[in-house]
Fold Retinoblastoma-associated protein.
Amino acid sequence: QRFEKTCKKIFTLVSDGTERETMRNCWTMFLLAKGRVLQMEDDLVISFQLLLCMLELFIKRCPSDLLQPIYKSAISKVQSPPTRTSRRNQSKVKSRPPEPEMDVQLLETLCKENECNAEEVKNVYQTSFAAFLESLVFRFPDFPQVHDLDQQYEEHYLKTRDIDGRLFFDRDETVLVPKVEVSEVEMTPKKNLADEDAVLIPPQTPIRAAMTSIQQLRSDLFSTGDQPSTNLYSYFNNCTVDPTQDVLKRLKTLDQEFSRSFGQAVGPRCIVLGKQRFILGVQLYYRVMEAMLKSEEKRLSVQNFSKLLNDSTFHTSLLACALEVVMAAYGESGFKAGGYNHGGGDSAGTDVCFPWILDVFNLAAFDFYKVIESFIKAYPTLSKEIVKHLETCENLIMERIAWRTGSPLFELLKQEHDSGAAEQVETPASFNQPLQHNHTAADLYLSPVRPGHRVLPPESPGTVNSQASSHTPTQPPAQIPRHPKSNSLSLFYKKLYRLAYTRLKILCSYLLSSHPELEPIMWTLFQHTLQHEYELMRDRHLDQLMMSAMYAICKVKSVDLRFKTIVTAYKNLPNTNQETFKHVLITEGHYDSIIIFYNQVFMQRLKTNILQYASTRPPTLSPIPQIPRSPYKILNSPLRVPGSNNVYISPLKNPRNSPSIMTPRSRMLVSIGESFGLSSRFQKINQMVNSSDRSFKRTLDLGSAPKPLKRLRFDVDGQDEADGSKSGGDSTLIQKLAEMSSARSRMQEQKMK
C-alpha cells in the first residue's frame, strides 16, 4: 500500500500503462534486494529505506514524461551526461557499465516527501544497496530486464519458501485483507455518525507509526550529544572514585558487541545501521542518567553517587533499556508469538525482539527489570506506545525470563529463606495495600545496601541493663545477624503477585463464574507456591503454575473442570502461546505437556498442602492483592478536572508529527481563550448542545430499559463504570450544559465590547 501511494506521487498515468510496468519492475527488484540484503526481512524501517533507494534508481532511468514535475526537474540533471557518453562509446565490445552513483538531491527529495531521515537512507544506500547493485552489474552487462528479475526472485522465493511478494503488487485476493465497507462498520456512539462537516482521520499504518516515533525520538535528542554533558561530568567528578574512564571504556566495548550482533541478526551489511542505533541509544542513556541523578540529588540532598555510578550492572542495564527504546521506536523490537522457549536463550537468531538485547550484553533479566520504572519516570516524554512496550518487557521478565537458571533472583531468594530470621519477600498482610512507586534506581541497584528495616548488632555484655540481667539469670544464645531486606526482591514480588492474581482472576471469570468461592482458595495455593516453592518456577512459566493450582483446587473441591477446558480458555487470553502448556519442563532436558507436569512435579511437591484444602480446617486464605492502575503515568492520557465528575482535559498534540492522534476526536475543536471570528461557529456549538440535549431527552422518554452505553467514565478511585450508573448523572449533565451556555454568552459579550 505504501509503495503504491508513493508511486502515485512520482509517476504520471499514461494510456499505454508504461508506468505500471515500471512500478512492477521496481517492486520485483526491491523484493530481490530485500531478500539479499536483510536476514530479518520484516524490519519495516530498513525495508522502506531500501525501497526509497530503489525508487531513486528507477527515477533516474525513467523517461521524463512519466514523472511528476517535482521529480522531473531532478531527473533532467542526472540523466543527460550518461546519454552523451553512451553515444560516443558505441562499439562491438561492450565494457561493464559504471556503477550507478547516488543522486543526493533526488534521494533527499524522496526522503522529504516520505518524512524519512535522509542520513539513514544514504547510509543504507552506501552500505547495502550499492553492494546489491554491484552484484547485479556483474551478473547482467546491461540493466536486468523483467524476465531476469522474475527469474532471480523465483530462485530466492523457492529457497526461502516465504510468501511470494509479487502477489501483493498483483493484488491477489489470497494475500490481501478483505475490504470492509464503511456502512458495515458499527459506529458508537450513534450521534457521532459522519456528516458532511465531519473530518475522518485515517488510522496510522505501521510505517507511518514507525516514522513518527523515530522523528519524535530524534527531535527529543537533538540537543543531546554522544558525550556526557557538563552537568553529567560534574556528577562524575563529585564521586569518590571518578567513573568517567570506566563509562567510556564500557561504551566502546558494548558498541562493538551491539553492532556485531545487530549485523548478524539483521544483515551483514547493516553493521553501520547498528552503529547508528547505538549512538541514539547512548544519547538517550546520557539524557536519562542525568535526569535520574538530578532527581536523586533533590531527594537526598547529596551529590556524591560514587557507589551507583561505579556499578557496572547499573550502567549496562540503563544502556540496554535505552537501546530497547530506540529499537522499539524503529519497530525492530517486539514480541513474537513463537518467542517462548524452554528457559534457555531465545531461539530466534535472526531477529532483535526482546530479550535479544539482554543476550547481547549478557545481562540478567532481573537486573534489567530494576531500571525500567526509573527510566520511564526520568524520561516523561516517552510515547504511550514505548511505555506500553517497556511495561510488556517487565511482565515478560516477571512471568518467565527472570526465572531462567543462573538468574540472580534465585540467589536472592535463597539468602532470604536461609537467613536465621528471614523476612518474607512480601508479607500477605501487605497485599491489600496500595503499591508504592517511589523506588529509584539507586534503591534497587544498591539494595540490599539500604535495608528495609535496620538490623541492630547484638549488644555487648557491658551495656546490658543491670535490672534486666537480674531478672534474666541465663543469657539467651546470640542471634545470627539477618541479611538486610532486599528492596529489589521485595518490589519484584509485589509486582509478581499482582500480575499473577490478575491472570488468575481473568481465567476464573471465564471458567468458574458459578463457583466464585474457589478463586480466593486458588489464589492462596498459587501464592504459597510462588513464595515457598519458588524452585518450581525455574525455567518455567508463571501461567503453568497458575493452571496447575486451578486444576488442583477443583479436584479437591469436587468441581468438574478438566485440564483441556482450562487450556482452551487459556488460549483465548491475550498474549498467550500454546508452547506454554505443550512444552513444560519435567526434568532437566525433558519437556512434556502441562498435565504430565502436574502429575509428576506439581502434585508430588505440593500434595500435602493441596489436601489441606479438602479438610474441615483448611489453611488461612491469603489476602487479595490490590490491583492498581499502571504505575507509569502516560502524559497522553486525559486528566480529570478537579471538582468535576465527567470533565477531562488532554495535552496538546502536535498534528504535524502525529496527524492521526489528534484529540479530542470530535466534530469540532474549540480553543478556549481564542477569538472565534465568525458567528457560524457559535451556531454550530448551539446545534451540538441542542442535539445532545434532545438525544438525552429521547433516552429518558423510552419505555423500555435503556441500552448500556459503551463509553466509560472513571470515578475518583479509578474504577470504571458505565455512564448513567450514578443517580446524580442526570443533574450533572444538565449542569455542564448550563455552564457551557454561560461561558459562550460571556465570550460573545466580550467580543461585542
Remarks:
- The chain has a mean pLDDT of 74.
- The beta strands are 584-587, 590-592, 639-640, 648-649, 712-714, 720-722.
- Residues 206-336+351-399 form a domain with the Cyclin A; domain 1 fold (CATH 1.10.472.10).
- The longest helix spans residues 271-300.
